[in-house]
Amino acid sequence: MTASPRISLTRRYRFAASHRLHCSTLSPEENRRLYDKCNNPYGHGHNYVLEVTVSGLVDQQTGMIANLGELDPFVEREVIEPFDQRYLNEEVPNFRDNVPTTENLCREVYRRLKSFPSARLERVRIEETSKNSFEFAGDTEMPDAHRQ
Amino acid sequence: MLGSVRSAYARGEDDMIRITRKLEFSAAHFYHNPDFSAEENRRIFGKCNNPHGHGHNYVLEVTVAGEPDPTTGMVLDLKELKELLQREVADRMDHRHLNYEVPELAGKIPTCENIALVIWNLLEPKITRGKLDRVRLYESNDLFADCTAGHANGNRA
Q1: Direct distance between the N- and C-terminal alpha carbons of chain A, in angstroms, rounded to an integer
Q2: Do A12 and B152 touch (CB under 8 A)?
Q3: Any A CB within 8 A of B45 CB
């Protein structure tokens, strides 16, 4: 008998939000050159798809790594409710000073979900469109004390 | 999909080729633990506790990693993998009730996690060319379990 495999569970969620890519330390000209259409001052939006992956032992009593009855309301409360149908630049505090690229969105979503009590947050993956996706798996090398 | 590429590189196995074969099967199940009270079963498992059962169109992706044979150019014969999946998975689970008709799941709650682990354990010893790298089982478009080689975290199927 070989070693047991590692097992994880992934759940997909959706939210729609608007954003504008603009960096306050760059000139208007540099912003336009760098972000192009995404710098439009009126903003634009996406139908984001969020994949949340958790890992841990499969509870022998329930057969589950995480009960969706807990995971779904947690993700809804921490991410979907505050992000869905919002303007990310103004309505999510961390994006007042950080450009809401999907790279930064991955980090923000990871930060909000990592305290999920029933399983280990393994990874978040966000599809900004069906053609672009981004992933963040945290910094597992860093001891907890040094995490942001 | 990107995840598997990233973790593959992290494992330092980037010289490997990974091939993935898909299988779809439909089955019924429900969640019920006889150690729990009726009330606990309803609270923990929600709608999935309906004793009449319900069903899914499962989608299974099986990934095998290995180096292509220099003569055939193949890691393994996909026809053999297709037949293995038919024999070990489809013949056991397709159009079956997972609670009653699959001996490997007896005494287990037939969650996506447990079904994926059972499939891993059925396939892993039978893949002789290349190594089983990942079993991904979709219960729906929005929910899947992954079993991946190595990094054992103590699960028993």
Answers
A1: 41
A2: no
A3: yes
